[in-house]
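=== Structure Prediction Worksheet ===
Name of assembly: unnamed complex
Input type: mixed (protein and possibly other molecules)
Chain count: two
Listed entries:
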Amino acid sequence: MTAPLNPRPPTGEFSLIDWIRRQAKAGQSTVLGIGDDCAIVRPSPDSDWLVTTDMLMDGRHFRLDQDGPEAVGFKALGVNLSDIAAMAGVPVAAVVAVALPKAHAVALAQGIHAGMAPLAERFGVDLVGGDTNAWDGPLVISITVLGETTARGPVRRSGAVPGDAILVTGPLGGSLKSGRHLRPQPRLLEALALHQAAPLHAMIDISDGLASDLGHILEESGGLGAILDADAIPIHPDAASLSDSDARSPLDHALNDGEDFELCVVVAPDDASRLIATPPRPAVVHRIGQVQGEPGLWLRTRDGQLIAIHARGFDHLHQ
Amino acid sequence: MTAPLNPRPPTGEFSLIDWIRRQAKAGQSTVLGIGDDCAIVRPSPDSDWLVTTDMLMDGRHFRLDQDGPEAVGFKALGVNLSDIAAMAGVPVAAVVAVALPKAHAVALAQGIHAGMAPLAERFGVDLVGGDTNAWDGPLVISITVLGETTARGPVRRSGAVPGDAILVTGPLGGSLKSGRHLRPQPRLLEALALHQAAPLHAMIDISDGLASDLGHILEESGGLGAILDADAIPIHPDAASLSDSDARSPLDHALNDGEDFELCVVVAPDDASRLIATPPRPAVVHRIGQVQGEPGLWLRTRDGQLIAIHARGFDHLHQ
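=== Predicted Assembly ===
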């Protein structure tokens, strides 16, 4: 144990980062890192482990020739950390498997590591192991992250109830426009701060698109529905910018583009009001709608009209 | 099993996730399986977690057109379980990420699952999560397995001392000949039985070749050496068979072929004698040599001559 647990809830971003680090260090989680058949990690007492894995492929989740290996490393770790954030967990350790194009294997491995290292450092994640291969195919990277739950417990997708408020942590849409899809900012601190401030009922990170990802919450919560207020959904400037060059409205982009990596959070309505009135830093939340008992996802326009939303989020298997 | 198998074949990503989820059954460690941002696993009291990851690529670790997806699933899980065996651990949970060739994505996913399921079932491993993608590239599969240590603790590569005996759990060489490289039989039970019967000093699974993998133990144990007795190394019939068709001796195959997935075990000499006289079932061990204080790996021939062994095991990055 290098530092005592902070008895007080963290108040700012940097103290929260410190707090996260101390959570991870408290268990001296990494007993054995790279260099054996397995890594060995030691759980903190009374904590469960969160496990998540994401694989990224050249031409699908990134374009190596345009984006470069550093962006690949950053994104690959970032999307996994975003999944830990979506459960209100504290990331602890990661293992990284790569298939590197043979011709530049070593340089690519170094570039990928350079992309992962700052994120890993920032959030106190130990890179404890991996599997490094070279081949004639395109670059593939697969990361698995282990995280710990806090005393508040994990936040699942399945806890939404009718009447709950639906929040998001930032503006949505158009992530491809400015390359934000390569720079996921995992909302780990935001998730922990929010979960500390109020019991979150359900949460997901927006990777496939708001409509699609909110749909997962509604489905996992027993087949519920929701009404979203068109005017309340925060739209990213990138969505407006993209809208100029295609036939889709900014709102359409905000609802259906993926890879924003903001959080979609479901809480009791009173808690929502409190979180909006007194945002637990560094989290900022926007109330965008309400959970309904009846299935179906609806958009309420300014004049009160309800329009059915059909999620067109990313289908990993068929697109 | 909480639900019957889906009578219809799944047609899209989400129905495939449903289908896989129904195949998975919740074990004691699995708090939450497939279907959220992360899986949740609960550690046993006083147990550390082992974490290992291995990625397999078409054309490199298997040939999909010849071997088929079921063999790919079996091998991908088997090699990871072999790493858990090499630490004398108990496998608990696995996450599986795949990049599937688009044209046959669903059928391939089902075939891969059919290959993993019997191994997972046999060793009580829960398939708790994954990431399923399709693309225009070749098949890639990456599995991460979590395992628990036993009360005896994990067996690392680094605990060999001069004078220790070197054992292997089975005959070596020629695994490519009969397709054994596709059917790794993880020596999990053998490792646990051996570690229960005697304090194992060091262990590794033979994936790159005996000379190469023993070399890892010697290096990690502080730069030791070893003498292997040529006549004592158990040679697989496949090695002899391969030897008929190439210019290499059966012993050369036994020393340098990879993917036998037997264990190389280092123990005190008295313990070695005991393990050989009274093998702890189901383990069977062969004493093949002795650890030396001076670096270097040597083969002792029947007439007592010492020949330097230069490991030619599989180089993952450059072959």
